[in-house]
């Protein structure tokens, strides 16, 4: 099961993640693709750098897969997260969840991204036009105040 | 906008659909991939045939895109639906919706698949081990009773 959850410094390929969950008894595959957005609250991002504690991050991704299996026993999940320098529109994370019926695929996929933001040790350094800042990838910050998981340096 | 919505008799390529909605101001892309499932209520499907009234089906897919734009003005949507003979695990439909933030991408994507099942004139012929039957792609049937949109022949 571990091969379904990985951290990579190479560009992520959506099809590879989807292939891992495609199977004869699934009629639905939901994917979530997180990409680097140029503007956040009016601030322009030039590029991002992601860093992860790789072994722990992969373990946590797999743990999320186990949580999904408990809640949606028929679901199969794969998650890949990229690290390193990412340009605008580059893919930071791909989640794929297959289930027999579609409602479960949406719910389990949504659960996965929320849990990634909660428990996976990945940080991003935002390079803005006017400076840079390390924040947790993690819970979206409000009013510029880093949320839980913050790793400002 | 029309080029984002199409019916094809060729295998669908997920990346091509995703590319149409990838853009600098999106941080989230949700995709829904509908695949041919082997078992439905204990009955084994050998393969499926999809037929569409192509011009009308593409028009209806585009209409769904407009509905999404009204509800989620920052969303970009692309939808491809396949017709012809599909084997188990083949992709019947790919929806991709990009939005600045993730919650909207899930909601709009879910909206799209539900609307496809409601308004798009596509029918499938199920080839089971013990026979065949035309049904609407569309609202899942209950207890073997074809739902609205049924086109049994």
TrEMBL record, chains A, B:
<comment type="similarity">
    <text>Belongs to the MoaE family.</text>
</comment>
<dbReference type="Pfam" id="PF02391">
    <property type="entry name" value="MoaE"/>
</dbReference>
<comment type="function">
    <text>Converts molybdopterin precursor Z into molybdopterin. This requires the incorporation of two sulfur atoms into precursor Z to generate a dithiolene group. The sulfur is provided by MoaD.</text>
</comment>
<keyword id="KW-0501">Molybdenum cofactor biosynthesis</keyword>
<comment type="pathway">
    <text>Cofactor biosynthesis; molybdopterin biosynthesis.</text>
</comment>
<feature type="region of interest" description="Disordered">
    <location>
        <begin position="134"/>
        <end position="153"/>
    </location>
</feature>
<dbReference type="InterPro" id="IPR003448">
    <property type="entry name" value="Mopterin_biosynth_MoaE"/>
</dbReference>
<dbReference type="GO" id="GO:0006777">
    <property type="term" value="P:Mo-molybdopterin cofactor biosynthetic process"/>
</dbReference>
<dbReference type="GO" id="GO:0030366">
    <property type="term" value="F:molybdopterin synthase activity"/>
</dbReference>
<comment type="subunit">
    <text>Heterotetramer of 2 MoaD subunits and 2 MoaE subunits. Also stable as homodimer. The enzyme changes between these two forms during catalysis.</text>
</comment>
<keyword id="KW-0808">Transferase</keyword>
<protein>
    <recommendedName>
        <fullName>Molybdopterin synthase catalytic subunit</fullName>
        <ecNumber>2.8.1.12</ecNumber>
    </recommendedName>
</protein>
<dbReference type="InterPro" id="IPR036563">
    <property type="entry name" value="MoaE_sf"/>
</dbReference>
């Amino acid at each position: 099961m571990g091969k379904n959850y990985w951290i990579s410094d190479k560009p992520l390929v959506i099809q590879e993640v989807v292939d891992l969950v495609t199977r004869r008894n699934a009629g639905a595959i939901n994917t979530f693709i997180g990409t680097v957005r140029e503007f956040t609250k009016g601030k322009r991002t030039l590029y991002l750098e992601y860093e992860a504690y790789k072994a722990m991050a992969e373990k946590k991704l797999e743990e999320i897969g186990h949580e999904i299996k408990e809640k949606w026993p028929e679901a199969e999940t794969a998650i890949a997260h990229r690290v390193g320098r990412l340009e605008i529109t580059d893919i930071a994370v791909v989640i794929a969840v297959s289930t027999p019926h579609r409602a479960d695929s949406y719910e389990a996929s949504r659960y996965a991204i929320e849990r990634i933001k909660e428990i996976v040790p990945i940080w991003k350094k935002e390079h803005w036009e006017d400076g840079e800042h390390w924040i947790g990838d993690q819970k979206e910050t409000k009013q510029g105040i880093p949320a839980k998981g913050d790793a400002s340096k």
